[in-house]
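User: Some background: our group keeps a shared notebook of sequences we're curious about, and every so often someone picks one and asks for a predicted structure to add to the entry. Today it's my turn. The entry only has the sequence so far, pasted here. Could you supply the structure so I can complete it?
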Amino acid sequence: MRRTESIRRSPIYNHFSETITGASVIRAYRCTDRFIQESRKRVDENMKFFYASNTGSRLFILLAST
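Assistant: Of course. Here's the predicted structure to add to the notebook entry:
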C-alpha cells in the first residue's frame, strides 16, 4: 500500500518541478489557473491512495495486536 501511495505521489513532485521551471512561461501565457487546477487534481488523486494506505496500516496494526 505504501509503495502504491509513493508511486502516486511521484506525478505531484514532477508537475511541481516542471511548473517551477516554466513559471515565467506559464505567467507569460496567463495559464496559471490551468496549472493550479492540474496540481489540485493530482493532489486529490494522491490523497485517495494516502487515505487508503493510512487506513490499511492502522487496521493491520489493530488486527496484529489482538
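Suggested note for the entry: The chain has a mean pLDDT of 91. The radius of gyration is 17 Å.
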